[in-house]
Amino acid sequence: MKILKGQVLWQDSFQELAECWQEKGYCETALSSDKFSWALREEKPTVLLHEYDRVEDVPLAPTWDIEHDTALFANAQHSSGKPWIYWPRHIRVVTELLKEGVLSYDERDCHSIFVGAAENPVQYVNRTKFDWGLCADHFDFSVNLFSKTPHKYSNLEFLKLIRRARFGLSLEGYGPKCQRDIEYMANGVVPIFTWDTFNDYHNPLQENIHYLYARHPREVKEKIAATSKEKWQEMSDNCIEWFDKNCSIEGSFKTTMDIIT
Q1: Which stretches of 155-243 are assigned E, i.e. beta strand?
Q2: DSSP for 201-213?
Q3: Which residue of 6, 61, 167, 245 is surrounded by the most CB atoms within 10 Å?
């Protein structure tokens, strides 16, 4: 198996994950001739690995035909594609931090959290429909439109913050999925989703098994209050298990192979 990595401006996210696959010996990697990533299989058609937030850009025939060739979509979905996986911003940092273990219910000193920013107008609109600060004990939201340094914290600082929380507020961003949500689940933080299009995965999440769902701040508080310590622990364990199966370095590769082989 060879993964051709798209010519993009970033080196984190799927680009970093693919490098980790190679380091583990799961596949080879090389640079793609275009801005898209591909999986090359012996004597089988090439598979598009679509890593972009939206689906406006797809390769065109005769190079590739979405109506006949296999395509996996990580974020926004195409009607002719297949749901795939998603990833943290920096899988290496997440993996290293998890070696310290996951905090128990009593070791966490924050009940609910949101740490994030609006980096573009789409995120701003999606994340300011309500006063979400009313429902999170730790709410740190900044507006940094088009900033070259939109993040207040380094990725490691951010992960060390959220891992101390029991519940993580999930607000819609630029695409239907947010890396924050994968980082929540990796650390056993139970996500509370507030929009409808977050769950296009090969192995979908289940409400009240992996996550809570709320439409507005009052409902967020109600859902949290109704979740016992025992129920939280069960859901937290389920989140960690789902992350390991679908988004860890090993699990993400195995899931990808399950889809395309």
Answers
A1: 165-170, 190-193, 212-213
A2: BSS---BTTTBEE
A3: 167
User: Quick count: other Cβ atoms within 10 Å of Cβ 28?
Assistant: 12
Shortest CA distance to 2 belongs to which of 34, 36, 27? Answer: 27
Residue 61: CB atoms within 10 Å: 10
Q: Cβ–Cβ contacts within 10 Å for residue 52, how many?
A: 19
Bridge partners for 30 per DSSP? 4
- For residue 98, the domain's CATH number is 3.40.50.2000
- Read off φ and ψ for residue 217, nearest 5 degrees: -55, -40
pLDDT tens digits for 57-115? 788 766 677 777 899 999 999 988 999 999 999 999 999 999 999 999 999 999 999 99
SS3 148: coil
Quote the CA–CA distance of 13 and 210 in Å, as a whole number.
22
The CA distances from residue 3 to 29, 203, 252, 254, in Å, are: 5, 22, 14, 14
pTM score of the predicted model: 0.95
List the domain range (segments joined by +) for residue 115.
Answer: 91-246
Residues 158 and 184 in one domain: yes
User: Into how many domains does the chain fold?
Assistant: 2
